[in-house]
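Escalated from tier 1: adenosine-5'-diphosphate holo job.
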Amino acid sequence: MKKISLTGIKPTGTPHLGNYLGAIRPALDLTKTYDAVYFIADYHALTTVQNGAEMRENIYKVAATWLALGLNPEESLFYKQSDIPEIFELSWALSCFTPKGFMNRAHAYKDKVAKNTAAGEDPDANVNMGLYCYPCLMDADILMFGADIVPVGKDQKQHVEFARDIAIKFNKHFKEDVFTIPEPVFAESTGVIPGLDGRKMSKSYDNIIDIFLQPKDLKKKLGKIVTNSQGIEEPKDPDSCNVFKLYKLFATPEQTEALAARYRAGGMGWGHAKAELQAVLEEHLGVARDKYFDLLSHPEEIDKILAYGKEKARVKSKAMMDKVRNLLGTY
Ligand code: ADP
Ligand code: TRP
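Tier 2 regenerated the structure:
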C-alpha cells in the first residue's frame, strides 16, 4: 500500500507563485509516489476571511488552481474541509488531549501577542478563539486521514509537530495505534520565493504575482518587479536580481545559464529580462491558465468535483470517528 501525503491550502485570496512553487508544485510531484489527500482549508481561513461572498470566491479559485495544475480527483482525495463534519468532531476530541501550553506557544498566536505587546495594546487584542485553537483543527485535518507526510512551508513545521505529539499521546493513552504519526516535509529546493519588492511573496505584503494572469495583465505585473537603476549597456549580476530568481525556478538549466550570460555581458535591459520571465511562465502555466479560467466560468463543475471528493472522504472520516468514539465511550 502507498503511503499518504496530505496537505491543505487556505482560501484567503488569489493563489500566487509563492504558493505554487513552495506548496502546490511540490505537493503535486508527491502524487507520483504517494496517495494524495489535498484539501481546501476553508474553516482555517475563517479566522481572517469573514465575508461569505469573498470566501466562496476564494474557495473556487483555490479549487480551480489545484485542478488546472493537474490534481486528478479520481486518483487523489480532493475535498473542502467544511464538507467533512467529522473533522470538527475530532478537533474537539483532540483539544481535550492538548495541553493549553501548546496553543500559548503556537507561532501565529505568539507573534500576534508580541506585536500587540510591542504596540502597548492588550496582548490578546484582535485574537479570536479560531486563531488560538487553529493548531487543534489542523491536528484533526492531519490525523483523520492517516497522513504519513505533510508537505508544507517551514512556517507550518510547528503545527505538524503538534499533530505528531498529540497522535503519540493519544495512542499511548488508549494503548492502540489509532493515529499514524505524521512527518512534515519541505520543498527545500525552492526556498522562499521573492515577491515584487524582493521580500517574501505573500498576500499580507501585497507583493504577489498571481499564478494565472492573462498575458496583458502578467506583463503589467512583471513590470512592477523592483530592479536596480542600471542602464541597458551595463553588465548585471543575475544572482541578486529578483527577475532572475523567479526565472530560474521555471527555466531549464540551459536556459538559466544562457540568461545569466546575457546579464553578465551587458546590453540587456530589465525589460528584456522580464520578457524572458514572461515567456517561461507562459510556457509552463499557459495551458493551465486556460483551464483555470474555464473552470471558474463553470463553478457547477467545481461543485461536482468537490461533492465527489466529500463522498469519498467521508467514508474514511466516518470510519475513523467510529474508532475514536468507541475509545472515548461516546458511542
Ligand atoms: P501567504 O503568505 O500569501 O498568506 P500562505 O501562508 O497562505 O501564503 O501559504 C500557503 C502555502 O504556500 C504554505 O505552504 C506556504 O509555506 C507556501 N508559501 C507562501 N508564500 C511562499 C513563498 N513566498 N515562498 C515559498 N512558499 C510560500
Ligand atoms: N495552516 C496551513 C497554512 O496556513 C493550512 C492547513 C490547514 C494545512 N490544515 C492543514 C496544511 C493540514 C497541512 C495540513 O498554510
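The chain has a mean pLDDT of 96.
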